[in-house]
């Protein structure tokens, strides 16, 4: 199984989440490619069984332009996309917290709720990342097995 962990991070918080996800996937036996959106060369999403997209939320609940550009580069809506991100409730409160995560998950018709982390994933939030990822992987593996049987 091959996974892509593509992320956009300015403060480093979303990158920390991407690192945690990548490490967990590798320990689970997957081949993982990390892709820093806006800096790394374009990718071919067709190569991946799972795609994890990470973003922060910008300017009153907006998805950053670099993430929108990445979505356009991919050019289609792959299946098995799971979305994660970091945010800060002090800017906009609960209504705008990680709204870009919700928007991307809805756009990709993700089978999983987006993972939303308040600023850095360190401390107690590490458990949120691990629990979310384990749930995504269990469901994704079931979906893959179902497709193989048909």
UniProtKB/TrEMBL annotation:
Task: Indicate yes or no for the key word Transport.
Answer: yes
Q: Which residues form the Flavodoxin-like domain?
A: 3-137
By its UniProt entry, which InterPro entries does this protein fall under?
Flavodoxin, Flavodoxin/NO_synth, Flavoprotein-like_sf, RNR_flavodoxin
| Regions crossing the membrane | none
Keywords recorded for this protein, A-Z? Electron transport, Flavoprotein, FMN, Transport
Query: What SUPFAM superfamilies does the database record attribute to this sequence?
Result: Flavoproteins
Q: Which cofactor does it need?
A: FMN
The reply to whether Flavoprotein figures as a keyword in the UniProt entry is yes
Q: What does this protein do?
A: Low-potential electron donor to a number of redox enzymes.
The similarity annotation says:
Belongs to the flavodoxin family.
Any idea what this protein is called? Answer: Flavodoxin
Specify the species: Tigheibacillus halophilus
């Amino acid at each position: 199984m091959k996974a892509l962990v593509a992320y956009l991070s300015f403060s480093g918080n979303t990158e920390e989440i991407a690192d945690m996800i990548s490490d967990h996937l590798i320990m689970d036996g997957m081949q993982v490619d990390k892709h820093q959106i806006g800096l790394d060369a374009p990718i071919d999403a067709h190569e991946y069984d799972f795609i994890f997209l990470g973003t922060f939320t910008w300017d009153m609940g907006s998805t950053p332009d670099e993430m929108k550009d990445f979505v356009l580069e991919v050019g289609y809506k792959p299946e098995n996309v799971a979305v994660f991100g970091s945010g800060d409730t002090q800017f906009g409160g609960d209504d705008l917290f990680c709204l870009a995560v919700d928007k991307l998950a809805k756009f990709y018709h993700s089978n999983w709720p987006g993972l939303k982390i308040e600023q850095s994933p360190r401390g107690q939030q590490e458990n949120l990342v691990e629990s979310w990822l384990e749930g995504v992987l269990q469901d994704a593996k079931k979906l893959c097995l179902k497709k193989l049987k048909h």
